[in-house]
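We recall that each integer encodes one residue's backbone shape. We quote one record:
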Amino acid sequence: MGEDLQIGQLVRSTAGRDKDYLFLVVQQVDARTVLIADGNFRRVQNPKRKNARHLMPYPAVADDVQMELAKGNSIPDRQLRAALQRLVNANGQLFQREVRATYG
């Protein structure tokens, strides 16, 4: 996957209007482009298309989201929000700068 990103991986946007927001990778489009969503502003049904170079990956992956999406199943936004919040709470020490958490 582009820039070694995995489906379900926690990423932070580093460019654009969504700069400093946290997302999960929900799909690979091509070698350099992925689709990201947060379940709140960017829903699973309408993910943001993003160049992988404009994302900062974190070494945290939502396994439950990864398994469901790998099977080809859709996941509800509430499950994506819960996974995002769980990863942020468990890995808070990873964030070296202020991030905008969009989960609700």
Summary: The radius of gyration is 12 Å. The first strand starts at residue 9 and ends at 13. The domain at 2-92 is CATH 2.30.30.30 (SH3 type barrels.). The chain has one domain: 2-92.
